[in-house]
């Protein structure tokens, strides 16, 4: 429909990058684009840590399950939900901050996601490629220690950034009728629509992997959701001052 929509619909995760460096001025411009995202009540609760130290990058790659592009990408960013600076603002005005609320955790996490997606879209508009690294939460306490994160700050995910050295296909998304409902939540037709979608995803994986991966979307998701999902997250977040009430 227009260049912006075409760009959004062409998103792919990029895990292989050329050796071409990304100028620091470009990184800073992308962060400014991230800052322009919507922010709940103007809290601006995202902090970005650019990790350049090779030793730290290697350790973060290990924390993320051995994903080599965490260490190899020209730029690696860690997006943190940050309520610590809000404590600072309260201290500046001799105000007693009320913290630990679930709502604060939600708004800070959402701020971080909105910030990062603005940055990703801006990066792709410049011909850069990206891939989010949620695997940092596999060993989130180690990541927090490596980055010297204080209480009221937690690493939400990482992001590899660089010029693409691969050209993967766009991964098919769910049909619009599955995710767009009218007036009320009605999933009566979803089973059939997901069954049809499963066939497209299976074909996509076969093409992408040369036939080595034969799996549908519902098989992938159901297989994932019968397992525990990072049960260490809740105690970690509570230790850091989140989700206390």
TrEMBL record:
CDD domains cross-referenced by the UniProt entry: NfsA-like
Secretion signal, residue range per the UniProt entry: none
EC annotation from Swiss-Prot or TrEMBL: 1.5.1.38
InterPro entries xrefs: Flavin_OxRdtase_Frp, Nitroreductase, Nitroreductase-like
The Nitroreductase domain, residue ranges: 9-163
Any GO molecular function: FMN reductase (NADPH) activity
Keyword presence, Cell cycle: no
Keyword line: Flavoprotein, FMN, NADP, Oxidoreductase
The protein's enzyme class: oxidoreductase
Name of a matching Pfam family: Nitroreductase
Family in the record: Belongs to the flavin oxidoreductase frp family.
Protein name: Oxygen-insensitive NADPH nitroreductase
Organism expressing this protein natively: Pontibacterium sinense
Gene: nfsA
């Amino acid at each position: 429909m227009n260049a912006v929509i075409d760009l959004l619909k062409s998103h792919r995760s990029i895990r292989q990058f050329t050796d071409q460096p990304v100028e620091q001025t470009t990184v800073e411009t992308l962060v400014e684009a991230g800052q322009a995202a919507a922010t709940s009540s103007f809290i601006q609760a995202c902090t970005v840590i650019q990790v350049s130290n090779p030793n730290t990058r290697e350790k973060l790659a290990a924390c993320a399950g051995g994903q080599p592009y965490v260490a190899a990408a020209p730029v690696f960013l860690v997006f943190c939900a940050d309520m610590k600076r809000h404590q600072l603002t309260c201290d500046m005005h001799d105000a007693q901050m009320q913290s630990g609320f679930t709502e604060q955790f939600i708004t800070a996490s959402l701020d971080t996601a909105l910030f990062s997606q603005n940055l990703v879209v801006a990066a792709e508009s410049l011909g850069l490629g990206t891939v989010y690294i949620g695997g940092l939460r596999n060993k989130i306490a180690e990541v927090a220690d490596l980055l010297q994160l204080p209480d009221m700050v937690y690493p939400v995910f990482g992001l590899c950034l660089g010029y693409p050295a691969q050209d993967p296909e766009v991964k098919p998304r769910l049909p619009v009728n599955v995710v767009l409902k009218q007036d009320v939540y009605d999933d009566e037709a979803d089973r059939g629509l997901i069954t049809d979608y499963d066939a497209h995803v299976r074909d996509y994986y076969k093409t992408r992997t040369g036939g080595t991966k034969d799996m549908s979307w519902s098989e992938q998701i159901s297989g994932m959701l019968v397992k525990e999902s990072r049960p260490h997250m809740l105690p970690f977040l509570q230790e850091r001052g989140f989700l206390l009430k």
